[in-house]
Amino acid sequence: LNRLLAELGVETRATEMSMSITCEGCGLSYAGGRGIRGILAQPWRVADPRFLRMLAEVPRFHRRARALLDGPGPDDAGAEGGAADPTWGEFLDAGGFSPYFVRHFAVPLVSCVWSSGDDDARDYPARHLFAFLDHHGMLTVTGSPVWRTVVGGSATYVERIAERLTDVRRGMPVESVLRHDDGVEVRTADGTVQTFDGVVLAVHADQALAVLADATAEEKQDLAAIAYSANPTWLHRDASVLPDRTGARASWNYRMRSCDEPSPAVLVSYWMNRLQGLDPGEDYLVTLNPGGRVDRGSVVAEMTYAHPVFTREAVAAAGRLRTAGGERLAFAGAHLGWGFHEDGCRSGVEAAQRFGVTW
């Protein structure tokens, strides 16, 4: 991705990868990635035994996560099935982690990063999760790498790529894709039918399934295995969604309504001023599933985003889809990795290589 951005002349800037967790049930509010000031945003927590135990469990979690990564995988000889490939919830249960740690650290970590409800977070494959955390320096208390953000957002590199293409058709839905021995037929909503040497379906798995007219039984099964969660999203100026204590305010701000009741949908607010270095004079936030939490008068834009739901079945299906499609069709998308910019770029390069194009 760095190479692509450099070739396109797209700037990036360092950003703070911090996350706060606020529980309206017990009143806990703290932030990771902001040093001791964020961890002890509520100074009285130094005398809270549950909070102190939670902090002590973090390095133990890191050690157990690394041990799982270093151990045999589910496909290795001698591996013990589910023990080698547990879900996040199964890993936490087997490790004997406290309910307080699970509720106020472990589940929010996955819910916040992958925009998922609590149950979906617990179903996340632990090995896939830990590989991501390890790759991003998040299986250590200190020494995490500096994250970067694209100046102007992802629309910047999309526009730069489009400028280099000779024939870009915006707003033209594809109705069907059909493979033949001598090409791939693409039918668009205006009734146009064209045949191409090869096609890359760089769309969500459910969208690919909807347009692929001749999907094999295996392709149908694998595309259907990757589900999505729909998250209503608002860009707004209502800073009340941030933690009350300024020390706990982070780039990503997760809020739970209760210690006991699982959240069916994530409630997280991205503080764009901190993430993208915006003018501090006025707050801009992006909140997923805002419900009645955000002042309607502060809303700038409303969207609905679809985020992939990672399960063991979805991760296995994604691995197969990376080489599926036959000689004339390839699948691509961030859902074939961990769902990030880098994963989308990598899968696009791999799809091009399937057709003999190297970069």
Descriptive account of the structure:
- With 359 residues, the chain is α+β, with helices and mostly antiparallel strands.
- It has a single domain, classed as FAD/NAD(P)-binding domain.
- The chain is built from 13 helices and 14 strands.
- The strands form four sheets. It has a seven-stranded mixed beta sheet with strand order 3-2-10-11-12-9-13. The protein has a three-stranded antiparallel beta sheet with strand order 5-6-7, with no helix packed on it.
- Strand 6 and strand 7 (193-196) form a beta hairpin.
- The mean pLDDT is 94.
State the low-pLDDT regions, or none: none
Number of helices: 13
CATH topology: FAD/NAD(P)-binding domain
CATH superfamily: FAD/NAD(P)-binding domain
Helix content: 25-40%
Span from first to last CA? 12 Å
CATH class: Alpha Beta
CATH architecture: 3-Layer(bba) Sandwich
Shape estimate:
globular
Mean pLDDT: 94
* Domain module tally: 1
State the gist of this model.
This protein has 359 residues and is of the alpha+beta class. The protein has a single domain (1-359), classed as 3-Layer(bba) Sandwich (FAD/NAD(P)-binding domain), CATH 3.50.50.
